[in-house]
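Hi R.,

As promised on Friday, here is the backbone we talked about, encoded as C-alpha coordinates. Could you run it through your design pipeline when you get a chance and send me back a sequence?
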Protein backbone atom coordinates (compact mmCIF):
# COMPACT_ATOMS: atom_id res chain seq x y z
CA UNK A 1 0.00 0.00 0.00
CA UNK A 2 1.33 3.43 -0.91
CA UNK A 3 2.49 5.42 2.10
CA UNK A 4 1.46 9.09 2.18
CA UNK A 5 3.54 11.89 3.71
CA UNK A 6 0.99 12.12 6.54
CA UNK A 7 1.42 8.38 7.21
CA UNK A 8 5.16 8.84 7.34
CA UNK A 9 4.99 11.92 9.55
CA UNK A 10 2.71 10.06 11.92
CA UNK A 11 5.12 7.12 11.98
CA UNK A 12 8.10 9.42 12.57
CA UNK A 13 6.34 11.33 15.35
CA UNK A 14 5.14 8.20 17.12
CA UNK A 15 8.56 6.57 16.83
CA UNK A 16 10.15 9.63 18.38
CA UNK A 17 7.64 10.07 21.20
CA UNK A 18 6.26 6.57 21.58
CA UNK A 19 6.07 6.85 25.41
CA UNK A 20 3.43 9.59 24.91
CA UNK A 21 1.06 7.41 22.93
CA UNK A 22 -2.65 7.42 23.69
CA UNK A 23 -5.42 5.65 21.76
CA UNK A 24 -6.24 7.54 18.57
CA UNK A 25 -9.08 10.03 18.88
CA UNK A 26 -11.80 9.26 16.36
CA UNK A 27 -13.35 12.68 15.82
CA UNK A 28 -13.90 15.01 12.90
CA UNK A 29 -10.60 16.46 11.73
CA UNK A 30 -12.38 19.74 11.00
CA UNK A 31 -15.13 20.53 13.51
CA UNK A 32 -16.39 23.33 11.26
CA UNK A 33 -16.10 26.25 13.66
CA UNK A 34 -17.28 29.60 12.32
CA UNK A 35 -15.79 31.67 15.16
CA UNK A 36 -12.31 32.31 16.60
CA UNK A 37 -11.15 31.41 20.10
CA UNK A 38 -7.79 31.28 21.86
CA UNK A 39 -6.64 29.81 25.16
CA UNK A 40 -3.51 31.25 26.81
CA UNK A 41 -1.86 29.26 29.60
CA UNK A 42 0.45 31.13 31.99
CA UNK A 43 2.29 28.35 33.80
CA UNK A 44 3.66 29.46 37.19
CA UNK A 45 6.65 27.17 37.24
CA UNK A 46 7.96 25.95 40.58
CA UNK A 47 4.74 25.67 42.57
CA UNK A 48 2.99 28.96 43.40
CA UNK A 49 2.22 29.88 47.03
CA UNK A 50 -1.34 30.82 46.17
CA UNK A 51 -2.26 30.95 49.86
CA UNK A 52 -0.58 34.36 49.96
CA UNK A 53 -2.04 35.35 46.57
CA UNK A 54 -5.75 34.64 47.17
CA UNK A 55 -6.80 35.01 50.79
CA UNK A 56 -9.81 34.37 53.04
CA UNK A 57 -11.81 37.41 54.13
CA UNK A 58 -14.11 35.58 56.55
CA UNK A 59 -12.48 36.21 59.91
CA UNK A 60 -13.23 33.14 61.99
CA UNK A 61 -13.33 29.39 61.43
CA UNK A 62 -10.89 26.84 60.06
CA UNK A 63 -10.95 28.55 56.64
CA UNK A 64 -10.90 32.05 58.14
CA UNK A 65 -8.32 34.81 58.18
CA UNK A 66 -7.54 34.52 61.90
CA UNK A 67 -6.51 30.90 61.42
CA UNK A 68 -4.46 31.82 58.36
CA UNK A 69 -2.68 34.65 60.20
CA UNK A 70 -1.87 32.44 63.20
CA UNK A 71 -0.31 29.72 61.04
CA UNK A 72 1.48 32.05 58.61
CA UNK A 73 2.65 34.45 61.38
CA UNK A 74 5.41 36.70 59.97
CA UNK A 75 4.65 35.60 56.40
CA UNK A 76 0.95 36.52 56.53
CA UNK A 77 -0.57 39.25 54.37
CA UNK A 78 -2.27 41.84 56.58
CA UNK A 79 -6.06 42.02 56.89
CA UNK A 80 -6.12 45.67 55.80
CA UNK A 81 -8.87 46.25 53.25
CA UNK A 82 -7.49 48.08 50.22
CA UNK A 83 -10.67 47.66 48.16
CA UNK A 84 -11.65 51.30 48.48
CA UNK A 85 -8.44 52.30 46.77
CA UNK A 86 -9.25 50.44 43.56
CA UNK A 87 -11.58 53.19 42.36
CA UNK A 88 -8.79 55.72 42.84
CA UNK A 89 -6.83 53.88 40.16
CA UNK A 90 -9.44 54.49 37.46
CA UNK A 91 -8.44 57.08 34.90
CA UNK A 92 -11.70 58.91 34.16
CA UNK A 93 -10.91 59.38 30.48
CA UNK A 94 -9.76 55.87 29.62
CA UNK A 95 -11.13 53.60 32.33
CA UNK A 96 -7.66 52.10 32.74
CA UNK A 97 -6.06 51.28 36.05
CA UNK A 98 -3.63 54.07 36.86
CA UNK A 99 -0.93 53.64 39.48
CA UNK A 100 1.21 56.41 38.08
CA UNK A 101 0.24 58.95 40.75
CA UNK A 102 2.00 58.28 44.01
CA UNK A 103 -0.85 59.82 45.99
CA UNK A 104 -3.11 57.05 44.67
CA UNK A 105 -0.56 54.29 45.21
CA UNK A 106 -1.47 51.94 48.07
CA UNK A 107 2.21 51.14 48.49
CA UNK A 108 3.07 54.72 49.37
CA UNK A 109 2.87 56.91 52.46
CA UNK A 110 2.80 60.66 51.84
CA UNK A 111 3.83 60.04 48.26
CA UNK A 112 6.92 57.95 49.11
CA UNK A 113 6.94 54.39 47.76
CA UNK A 114 7.53 51.59 50.22
CA UNK A 115 10.85 49.81 49.85
CA UNK A 116 11.69 47.06 49.85
CA UNK A 117 8.90 45.11 48.16
CA UNK A 118 8.51 42.96 51.27
CA UNK A 119 6.62 45.74 53.02
CA UNK A 120 4.14 45.83 50.17
CA UNK A 121 3.75 42.06 50.17
CA UNK A 122 2.33 42.04 53.68
CA UNK A 123 0.53 45.41 53.58
CA UNK A 124 -3.01 44.27 52.84
CA UNK A 125 -5.44 42.89 50.30
CA UNK A 126 -8.24 43.90 47.97
CA UNK A 127 -11.35 42.32 49.46
CA UNK A 128 -13.93 41.08 47.00
CA UNK A 129 -17.04 40.27 49.09
CA UNK A 130 -18.98 38.94 46.08
CA UNK A 131 -16.16 36.46 45.50
CA UNK A 132 -15.57 35.77 49.17
CA UNK A 133 -11.82 36.30 48.79
CA UNK A 134 -9.08 38.88 49.04
CA UNK A 135 -6.36 39.45 46.45
CA UNK A 136 -2.80 40.24 47.56
CA UNK A 137 -2.26 44.01 47.64
CA UNK A 138 0.52 43.71 45.07
CA UNK A 139 -2.10 42.77 42.44
CA UNK A 140 -4.42 45.79 42.11
CA UNK A 141 -4.78 45.29 38.35
CA UNK A 142 -6.26 41.84 38.85
CA UNK A 143 -8.49 43.14 41.63
CA UNK A 144 -9.72 45.76 39.15
CA UNK A 145 -10.42 43.08 36.53
CA UNK A 146 -12.50 41.34 39.18
CA UNK A 147 -14.69 44.43 39.50
CA UNK A 148 -15.08 44.44 35.70
CA UNK A 149 -16.27 40.79 35.77
CA UNK A 150 -13.28 39.72 33.67
CA UNK A 151 -11.53 37.66 36.35
CA UNK A 152 -12.53 34.68 38.47
CA UNK A 153 -10.71 32.52 40.98
CA UNK A 154 -10.77 28.72 41.22
CA UNK A 155 -10.05 27.60 44.78
CA UNK A 156 -8.17 24.53 46.01
CA UNK A 157 -7.63 22.86 42.64
CA UNK A 158 -5.02 20.19 42.00
CA UNK A 159 -4.19 16.89 40.33
CA UNK A 160 -6.64 14.12 41.25
CA UNK A 161 -7.49 10.69 39.91
CA UNK A 162 -10.70 10.56 41.98
CA UNK A 163 -12.13 12.52 44.92
CA UNK A 164 -10.11 11.81 48.06
CA UNK A 165 -10.25 12.80 51.71
CA UNK A 166 -7.80 12.73 54.59
CA UNK A 167 -9.58 9.62 55.83
CA UNK A 168 -9.29 7.68 52.56
CA UNK A 169 -5.65 8.68 52.28
CA UNK A 170 -4.91 7.50 55.83
CA UNK A 171 -6.63 4.14 55.36
CA UNK A 172 -4.92 3.60 51.98
CA UNK A 173 -8.18 3.37 50.04
CA UNK A 174 -7.48 6.46 47.89
CA UNK A 175 -5.99 6.33 44.41
CA UNK A 176 -3.48 9.18 44.34
CA UNK A 177 -1.77 10.98 41.47
CA UNK A 178 1.62 9.67 40.43
CA UNK A 179 4.61 11.13 42.30
CA UNK A 180 2.90 13.84 44.33
CA UNK A 181 5.00 16.88 45.36
CA UNK A 182 7.71 16.27 42.71
CA UNK A 183 8.19 19.20 40.32
CA UNK A 184 8.84 17.41 37.05
CA UNK A 185 6.20 14.74 37.57
CA UNK A 186 3.47 17.15 38.61
CA UNK A 187 4.30 19.49 35.74
CA UNK A 188 3.73 16.50 33.45
CA UNK A 189 0.45 15.66 35.17
CA UNK A 190 -0.81 19.23 34.73
CA UNK A 191 0.19 19.21 31.08
CA UNK A 192 -1.19 15.77 30.21
CA UNK A 193 -4.47 16.29 32.06
CA UNK A 194 -4.22 12.72 33.41
CA UNK A 195 -3.06 12.51 37.04
CA UNK A 196 -2.03 8.86 36.88
CA UNK A 197 -0.29 8.87 33.49
CA UNK A 198 3.07 10.61 33.19
CA UNK A 199 3.68 9.31 29.68
CA UNK A 200 0.65 10.60 27.82
CA UNK A 201 0.89 13.26 25.16
CA UNK A 202 -0.38 16.69 26.21
CA UNK A 203 -4.06 17.51 26.49
CA UNK A 204 -3.77 20.44 24.07
CA UNK A 205 -1.77 18.33 21.62
CA UNK A 206 -4.33 15.51 21.71
CA UNK A 207 -7.14 18.03 21.34
CA UNK A 208 -5.70 19.18 18.04
CA UNK A 209 -5.01 15.61 16.98
CA UNK A 210 -8.80 15.35 16.93
CA UNK A 211 -9.15 18.71 15.16
CA UNK A 212 -6.25 18.37 12.72
CA UNK A 213 -8.00 20.34 9.97
CA UNK A 214 -9.38 23.14 12.11
CA UNK A 215 -6.90 25.77 10.81
CA UNK A 216 -6.75 24.55 7.20
CA UNK A 217 -3.14 23.44 7.38
CA UNK A 218 -1.74 26.84 8.38
CA UNK A 219 2.03 26.90 8.90
CA UNK A 220 1.27 28.41 12.34
CA UNK A 221 -0.37 25.15 13.33
CA UNK A 222 -2.63 25.25 16.38
CA UNK A 223 -0.33 25.20 19.42
CA UNK A 224 2.43 27.73 20.08
CA UNK A 225 4.93 27.90 22.93
CA UNK A 226 6.96 30.96 23.84
CA UNK A 227 8.70 29.01 26.62
CA UNK A 228 10.43 26.13 24.87
CA UNK A 229 9.22 22.60 24.35
CA UNK A 230 6.59 21.37 26.77
CA UNK A 231 4.38 18.33 26.92
CA UNK A 232 1.05 20.15 26.99
CA UNK A 233 1.18 21.15 23.33
CA UNK A 234 2.50 17.87 21.89
CA UNK A 235 0.04 15.32 20.52
CA UNK A 236 0.44 11.94 18.91
CA UNK A 237 0.36 13.74 15.55
CA UNK A 238 0.44 17.40 16.61
CA UNK A 239 3.80 19.19 16.76
CA UNK A 240 3.69 22.74 18.22
CA UNK A 241 5.40 25.85 16.95
CA UNK A 242 8.13 26.71 19.48
CA UNK A 243 9.64 30.18 19.21
CA UNK A 244 11.22 33.09 21.03
CA UNK A 245 9.53 36.45 21.56
CA UNK A 246 10.92 37.46 18.16
CA UNK A 247 11.33 35.29 15.04
CA UNK A 248 14.92 34.10 14.79
CA UNK A 249 15.58 32.07 11.64
CA UNK A 250 18.95 31.78 9.96
CA UNK A 251 19.94 35.42 9.93
CA UNK A 252 23.58 34.57 9.14
CA UNK A 253 22.71 32.67 5.93
CA UNK A 254 24.14 34.06 2.74
CA UNK A 255 21.93 34.38 -0.34
CA UNK A 256 23.53 31.23 -1.78
CA UNK A 257 22.85 29.29 1.41
CA UNK A 258 19.22 30.42 1.41
CA UNK A 259 18.87 29.28 -2.19
CA UNK A 260 20.27 25.85 -1.32
CA UNK A 261 17.88 25.53 1.63
CA UNK A 262 14.96 26.52 -0.58
CA UNK A 263 15.93 23.96 -3.21
CA UNK A 264 15.95 21.20 -0.60
CA UNK A 265 12.30 21.88 0.09
CA UNK A 266 11.32 22.19 -3.56
CA UNK A 267 12.82 18.96 -4.86
CA UNK A 268 10.55 16.06 -5.68
CA UNK A 269 11.66 12.88 -3.91
CA UNK A 270 10.43 9.34 -3.67
CA UNK A 271 12.53 8.65 -0.56
CA UNK A 272 10.30 9.68 2.35
CA UNK A 273 13.17 10.22 4.79
CA UNK A 274 14.89 12.64 2.42
CA UNK A 275 11.63 14.42 1.72
CA UNK A 276 10.94 14.80 5.44
CA UNK A 277 14.42 16.24 5.96
CA UNK A 278 13.90 18.62 3.06
CA UNK A 279 10.57 19.74 4.51
CA UNK A 280 12.17 20.41 7.90
CA UNK A 281 14.94 22.50 6.30
CA UNK A 282 12.43 24.38 4.19
CA UNK A 283 10.12 25.06 7.14
CA UNK A 284 12.99 26.23 9.35
CA UNK A 285 13.91 28.87 6.78
CA UNK A 286 10.47 29.77 5.42
CA UNK A 287 8.37 29.98 8.59
CA UNK A 288 10.64 32.61 10.25
CA UNK A 289 10.29 34.72 7.09
CA UNK A 290 6.50 34.68 7.45
CA UNK A 291 6.75 35.39 11.19
CA UNK A 292 9.02 38.36 10.59
CA UNK A 293 6.41 39.80 8.26
CA UNK A 294 3.78 39.37 10.99
CA UNK A 295 6.03 41.12 13.51
CA UNK A 296 6.83 43.94 11.08
CA UNK A 297 3.14 44.56 10.42
CA UNK A 298 1.80 44.05 13.93
CA UNK A 299 -0.45 46.71 15.38
CA UNK A 300 0.62 49.52 17.67
CA UNK A 301 -1.56 49.70 20.76
CA UNK A 302 -3.07 53.01 21.79
CA UNK A 303 -3.97 51.88 25.31
CA UNK A 304 -1.62 52.44 28.22
CA UNK A 305 -0.66 50.16 31.09
CA UNK A 306 -1.48 50.63 34.76
CA UNK A 307 1.22 53.29 35.09
CA UNK A 308 -0.04 55.27 32.11
CA UNK A 309 2.96 54.06 30.11
CA UNK A 310 2.98 52.50 26.60
CA UNK A 311 1.08 49.25 26.93
CA UNK A 312 3.89 46.69 26.78
CA UNK A 313 6.61 48.89 28.22
CA UNK A 314 8.77 47.07 30.75
CA UNK A 315 9.51 48.50 34.20
CA UNK A 316 13.22 48.71 34.95
CA UNK A 317 15.09 48.47 38.23
CA UNK A 318 16.69 51.82 37.53
CA UNK A 319 13.34 53.63 37.56
CA UNK A 320 13.17 55.94 40.56
CA UNK A 321 9.43 56.47 40.70
CA UNK A 322 6.87 54.07 42.06
CA UNK A 323 7.10 50.45 43.03
CA UNK A 324 8.25 49.34 39.59
CA UNK A 325 11.86 50.01 40.55
CA UNK A 326 11.70 46.85 42.65
CA UNK A 327 10.61 44.58 39.83
CA UNK A 328 13.03 41.93 38.55
CA UNK A 329 15.09 43.07 35.61
CA UNK A 330 18.55 44.12 34.60
CA UNK A 331 20.39 46.44 36.94
CA UNK A 332 21.17 48.50 33.87
CA UNK A 333 17.49 48.60 33.00
CA UNK A 334 18.17 47.29 29.52
CA UNK A 335 16.55 43.85 29.51
CA UNK A 336 12.95 42.75 29.27
CA UNK A 337 10.71 41.08 31.79
CA UNK A 338 10.06 37.83 30.01
CA UNK A 339 6.38 37.39 30.90
CA UNK A 340 5.37 40.84 29.68
CA UNK A 341 7.25 40.47 26.41
CA UNK A 342 6.05 36.92 25.84
CA UNK A 343 2.45 37.97 26.27
CA UNK A 344 3.07 40.82 23.87
CA UNK A 345 4.27 38.23 21.35
CA UNK A 346 1.10 36.21 21.93
CA UNK A 347 -1.00 39.26 20.96
CA UNK A 348 0.74 39.37 17.58
CA UNK A 349 -0.13 35.78 16.73
CA UNK A 350 -3.66 36.06 18.12
CA UNK A 351 -4.30 39.17 16.04
CA UNK A 352 -2.81 37.61 12.92
CA UNK A 353 -4.53 34.29 13.59
CA UNK A 354 -8.00 35.77 13.63
CA UNK A 355 -7.37 38.10 10.70
CA UNK A 356 -6.00 35.25 8.57
CA UNK A 357 -8.98 32.98 9.21
CA UNK A 358 -7.66 30.60 11.88
CA UNK A 359 -10.32 29.23 14.20
CA UNK A 360 -8.55 27.89 17.29
CA UNK A 361 -5.16 28.59 18.88
CA UNK A 362 -3.57 27.61 22.22
CA UNK A 363 -0.53 29.41 23.62
CA UNK A 364 1.85 28.46 26.44
CA UNK A 365 4.09 30.84 28.39
CA UNK A 366 5.99 30.18 31.60
CA UNK A 367 6.57 32.49 34.53
CA UNK A 368 9.43 31.00 36.52
CA UNK A 369 10.80 31.34 40.05
CA UNK A 370 7.92 30.03 42.17
CA UNK A 371 9.90 27.37 44.08
CA UNK A 372 10.05 29.55 47.20
CA UNK A 373 11.69 27.46 49.94
CA UNK A 374 13.44 30.59 51.24
CA UNK A 375 13.36 34.37 50.87
CA UNK A 376 9.72 34.00 49.89
CA UNK A 377 8.40 37.38 50.96
CA UNK A 378 10.94 39.21 48.84
CA UNK A 379 11.01 36.85 45.85
CA UNK A 380 7.33 35.93 45.67
CA UNK A 381 6.30 39.58 45.98
CA UNK A 382 8.17 40.43 42.78
CA UNK A 383 6.53 37.55 40.94
CA UNK A 384 3.00 38.51 42.00
CA UNK A 385 3.59 42.15 41.04
CA UNK A 386 4.89 41.18 37.61
CA UNK A 387 2.07 38.65 37.10
CA UNK A 388 -0.57 41.29 37.85
CA UNK A 389 1.05 43.85 35.56
CA UNK A 390 1.56 41.39 32.71
CA UNK A 391 -1.94 39.90 32.83
CA UNK A 392 -3.53 43.35 32.91
CA UNK A 393 -1.41 44.54 30.00
CA UNK A 394 -2.40 41.48 28.01
CA UNK A 395 -6.12 41.81 28.76
CA UNK A 396 -6.00 45.50 27.84
CA UNK A 397 -4.45 44.57 24.49
CA UNK A 398 -7.07 41.86 23.89
CA UNK A 399 -9.82 44.40 24.65
CA UNK A 400 -8.33 46.93 22.23
CA UNK A 401 -8.20 44.28 19.51
CA UNK A 402 -11.95 43.72 19.99
CA UNK A 403 -11.38 40.13 21.10
CA UNK A 404 -12.50 40.39 24.74
CA UNK A 405 -14.87 37.43 24.53
CA UNK A 406 -12.63 35.35 22.24
CA UNK A 407 -9.48 34.99 24.37
CA UNK A 408 -9.33 33.28 27.76
CA UNK A 409 -6.18 33.33 29.90
CA UNK A 410 -5.68 30.87 32.73
CA UNK A 411 -3.02 29.95 35.30
CA UNK A 412 -1.57 26.55 36.09
CA UNK A 413 1.34 25.52 38.31
CA UNK A 414 3.18 22.39 39.44
CA UNK A 415 1.18 22.43 42.68
CA UNK A 416 0.33 24.70 45.59
CA UNK A 417 2.58 25.22 48.59
CA UNK A 418 2.25 24.27 52.24
CA UNK A 419 0.33 26.38 54.74
CA UNK A 420 3.06 25.61 57.25
CA UNK A 421 6.40 27.36 56.71
CA UNK A 422 9.99 27.48 57.89
CA UNK A 423 10.00 31.19 58.70
CA UNK A 424 11.38 32.15 55.30
CA UNK A 425 9.62 29.91 52.79
CA UNK A 426 7.21 27.07 52.15
CA UNK A 427 7.36 23.47 50.96
CA UNK A 428 5.93 21.59 47.97
CA UNK A 429 2.25 20.84 48.51
CA UNK A 430 -0.86 19.94 46.51
CA UNK A 431 -4.03 22.03 46.14
CA UNK A 432 -3.79 25.69 45.15
CA UNK A 433 -5.81 28.68 43.92
CA UNK A 434 -5.82 29.96 40.33
CA UNK A 435 -6.98 32.89 38.18
CA UNK A 436 -9.03 32.71 34.95
CA UNK A 437 -9.29 35.92 32.90
CA UNK A 438 -11.28 37.14 29.90
CA UNK A 439 -14.59 38.53 28.72
CA UNK A 440 -16.15 35.06 28.48
CA UNK A 441 -15.32 34.38 32.16
CA UNK A 442 -18.17 34.61 34.66
CA UNK A 443 -16.07 36.97 36.73
CA UNK A 444 -16.06 38.56 40.16
CA UNK A 445 -16.74 35.13 41.65
CA UNK A 446 -14.86 32.24 43.20
CA UNK A 447 -15.43 28.63 42.21
CA UNK A 448 -14.86 26.05 44.89
CA UNK A 449 -14.51 26.79 48.60
CA UNK A 450 -11.75 28.20 50.75
CA UNK A 451 -10.26 25.13 52.47
CA UNK A 452 -9.60 24.44 56.11
CA UNK A 453 -6.16 25.81 56.89
CA UNK A 454 -5.52 23.81 60.06
CA UNK A 455 -2.29 21.87 60.22
CA UNK A 456 -3.23 18.19 60.54
CA UNK A 457 -6.81 19.31 59.91
CA UNK A 458 -9.50 17.74 57.77
CA UNK A 459 -7.94 18.94 54.50
CA UNK A 460 -4.26 18.42 55.30
CA UNK A 461 -2.50 15.55 53.53
CA UNK A 462 -0.18 15.16 56.50
CA UNK A 463 1.14 17.64 59.04
CA UNK A 464 2.58 20.49 56.95
CA UNK A 465 -0.65 21.97 55.62
CA UNK A 466 -0.54 20.34 52.17
CA UNK A 467 -4.09 21.02 51.02
CA UNK A 468 -6.04 18.08 49.62
CA UNK A 469 -7.71 19.47 46.46
CA UNK A 470 -11.49 19.56 46.19
CA UNK A 471 -11.43 20.46 42.48
CA UNK A 472 -9.55 18.31 39.98
CA UNK A 473 -7.36 19.67 37.20
CA UNK A 474 -9.58 17.59 34.90
CA UNK A 475 -12.66 19.63 35.88
CA UNK A 476 -10.76 22.90 35.42
CA UNK A 477 -9.50 21.94 31.96
CA UNK A 478 -12.83 20.43 30.95
CA UNK A 479 -14.57 23.73 31.73
CA UNK A 480 -12.04 25.60 29.57
CA UNK A 481 -12.12 23.16 26.67
CA UNK A 482 -15.93 23.02 26.68
CA UNK A 483 -15.95 26.77 26.04
CA UNK A 484 -13.27 26.15 23.41
CA UNK A 485 -15.58 23.77 21.55
CA UNK A 486 -14.82 20.24 22.82
CA UNK A 487 -17.95 18.16 23.30
CA UNK A 488 -18.56 15.61 26.04
CA UNK A 489 -17.28 12.67 24.00
CA UNK A 490 -14.00 14.38 23.16
CA UNK A 491 -13.50 15.53 26.75
CA UNK A 492 -14.00 11.96 27.96
CA UNK A 493 -11.00 10.93 25.86
CA UNK A 494 -8.89 13.96 26.69
CA UNK A 495 -9.50 13.60 30.45
CA UNK A 496 -10.33 9.94 31.14
CA UNK A 497 -10.51 10.53 34.92
CA UNK A 498 -13.18 13.21 34.48
CA UNK A 499 -15.79 10.45 34.77
CA UNK A 500 -14.81 10.06 38.44
CA UNK A 501 -16.14 13.53 39.31
CA UNK A 502 -19.81 14.45 39.58
CA UNK A 503 -19.35 17.99 38.23
CA UNK A 504 -17.82 18.22 34.78
CA UNK A 505 -18.36 21.95 34.19
CA UNK A 506 -17.35 24.25 37.06
CA UNK A 507 -19.37 27.13 35.59
CA UNK A 508 -16.69 29.83 35.37
CA UNK A 509 -17.04 30.13 31.57
CA UNK A 510 -20.08 31.52 29.77
CA UNK A 511 -21.74 29.26 27.25
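Update: got your reply. Pasting your designed sequence below so it's all in one thread:
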Amino acid sequence: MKQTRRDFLKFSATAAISPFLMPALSFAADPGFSDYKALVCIFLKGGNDSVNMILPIVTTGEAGYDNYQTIRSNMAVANNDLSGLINAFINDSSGNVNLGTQANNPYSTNGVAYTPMTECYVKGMYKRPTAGIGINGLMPELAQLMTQNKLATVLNMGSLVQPVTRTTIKNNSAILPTMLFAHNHQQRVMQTGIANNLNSAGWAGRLFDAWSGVNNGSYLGMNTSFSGNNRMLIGNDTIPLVMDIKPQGYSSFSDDQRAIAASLGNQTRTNLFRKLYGDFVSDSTEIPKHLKIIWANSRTFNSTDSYGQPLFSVPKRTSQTGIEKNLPGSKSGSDNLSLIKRLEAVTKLIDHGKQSGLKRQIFFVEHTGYDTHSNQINGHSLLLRELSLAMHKFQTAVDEMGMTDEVTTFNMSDFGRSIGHNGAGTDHAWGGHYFVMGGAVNGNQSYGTMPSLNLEGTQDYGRKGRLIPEIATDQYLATLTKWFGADDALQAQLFPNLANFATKDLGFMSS
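One thing I noticed while checking it: The mean pLDDT is 83.

Thanks again,
M.
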